[in-house]
Structure formats: C-alpha cells, structure tokens
C-alpha cells in the first residue's frame, strides 16, 4: 500500500529539488522526510530516488509515480472530504498560504474568531506570493491560499482551483505629507507624477510589472524606480523618509508612518480583489467551509471600517 504522505513528499521533491526545501515546505524534519521516502520505496518495490553528487533525484520509476500521484491524492482528498461531511467534524489542520497584506490584516482578525468557534481546528499560516502559492496549492502543500487579482492584470486560474472573493482593495498612491500634491483638496492626474522617484517591488514581480504598465498606459511615462522591496511596510517607511512615491494596496495603509498620506489621481483608479482559493476536490470540506465563512465576515466588516474611515477623513478635510 502506497503511503499518501510519502507520495506528497515525492511530489514536493520533484518540484522543489532538495530534501531541505521539502522539509521546510511541509514542516517536517529531514529524518522524517528520509524515513517516509524509504518506506515509500519499500512499498513500491523499486528505487524511486538516486543520489547524484549532493542532490537527490527521482529515478524513472519515481517520475512515473509522480505522474500518477496527483490523481491518487485528489481521489483520496475527495474521499476524506466525504467522510468529514458525514461526521460534520470541523477539526484537524488547515495549512494556509497568504499574500503579505491579507496575512497582516484579514487573518489577524479572523484567526481569534476561528479559535473561539472551532477549538479543534488548527490553523497554520505562511506568507507567500500568489505566483508561488498557486502551484503549491495544486501540489497539495497547502489547503487554501489567499491571493489577489488586479483589474488590469487578471491572474490565470487553473481548473483545479475554486476561488471565492473576499473584498475589493483600492490601490493608493503613497506620498510624504510635505509633497505638493498631498493635500486632499488638490486634484492631480497620473501623468503629473511622471518626474517623481518611485518605490516598487522586485523587478519582474507581478506588482512591479503592473506598476510599470499602469504608469505607461494611463500616465504616459515609465516610472523612475530607484528602490525595490517586496514589503509594503518598508515601502511606506521609504516614502515617509522622502525617498519617493509608491503604489500600495489600501490594506497596507494601516502600517503607514504618520507622515505618509494616500491619494488617488483624478483621471485613474485601480483596484484588486482579494480571494480565497482552494482545490476543487476539497471545496466541500467542512473545515474549509467554516474557514471561508469567517474570512468573508471579517473582510466585509473591514471594508465597512475602511469606508467609514475614508468618509471621516473627507469630512475632516
């Protein structure tokens, strides 16, 4: 009998390439990984891996098994989901990968609610960019992921996944409070920022590509990006120090220094949708349904709070 956990490890090894990376992804020790692989080889009756130099590679038999593993694991997940539905049990472990802004805003409000309502449900979270999290979810490394989808750069959605929108999130322009366009009563167009210094994410990242596309398409300029970081908190600290402007999601604005303001240009607006994504084979799992319900309630409350905060700032202005 082939061990499902061993199959999962073999799939991860094929994807990640090293035992260390697999151990980090699955939160297992190196010895546990090695033992599971050894047991899987005994069950299979043929060598599944071979050491080439310092690397552990899959044999032809291991590669063939990986090709079948996805279907095997999907069928097992469907069976487990059916059993959970029969018992109505909301328990076990949910492994969640999340983009930075949702991990810092939505989940801190949702996790205490889940802990109170479902004390037998353990939630484990990890920050991860969507482009990495999506294939990890398909492989089974996580049970659910929080990702985003931008209006001008739609994310491809593999057929194995089901997505549920949580909230709409505006993209704001962060600038120092001393900037000439920082005042709430001052209107400006995106093109007026053509000669500004910008802060963006890593070159080649989805948000960086979106930033460049928006500025060139709607503002008529290529942004002069001099500072790059994938942490919006760091971006806002740089903005507060007068190092440049930045485009940031509204969910990231709560961590801003007091000397940073957020504006929208008069001629352009952009938003994204924050979504929960799960595998279709586990979509009826009671624990995931409960998790989804809490996230949607929390996200809805947060949107009302943000809207009220914006109305208050406009009235004060």
Automatic annotation (TrEMBL):
Entries under PROSITE patterns matching the protein: HTH_LYSR
Pfam families to which the protein is assigned, alphabetical: HTH_1 (PF00126), LysR_substrate (PF03466)
GO cellular component, as recorded: protein-DNA complex
CDD domains registered for this protein in UniProt: HTH_ARSR
Keyword Transcription regulation included in the entry's annotation: yes
Record domain HTH lysR-type: where: 2-59
InterPro entries: ArsR-like_HTH, LysR_HTH_N, LysR_subst-bd, WH-like_DNA-bd_sf, WH_DNA-bd_sf
Family per similarity comment: Belongs to the LysR transcriptional regulatory family.
Protein name listed in UniProt: HTH lysR-type domain-containing protein
